[in-house]
Write the structure tokens for this entry.
Amino acid sequence: MTETFDLDYLQSDGILGLAPIDGLAKSVPGKSSFVQNLYDQGVIKNRVFSFFLASYNDWTKESAFTLGGYDLDQYAPNSTVTWNAIQNTNYWTVLLTGASFGSSPITL
């Protein structure tokens, strides 16, 4: 195992480059995010990424991470995407107006 301190100046909590652009610009001025670089090089058609987290008790599907899109047909048939505005462009934050666990509402 190797330990490095070369990245100590970065304000980040990950290494893949999925931060919103403002967060990246503050960490590494003049640099583009990983997703933006893939888009600029034509590797992906859309500047998006998606996660599917499989249920712990349903082994019929595996969790997945997709760059450049999402696959509702495979992971959420008969569903739609809900797009939410980012509330703080330094971090992935959205405004929650409600939440529930199963059919039970959770107080925010």
Q: What stands out?
A: The chain has three helices and four strands.
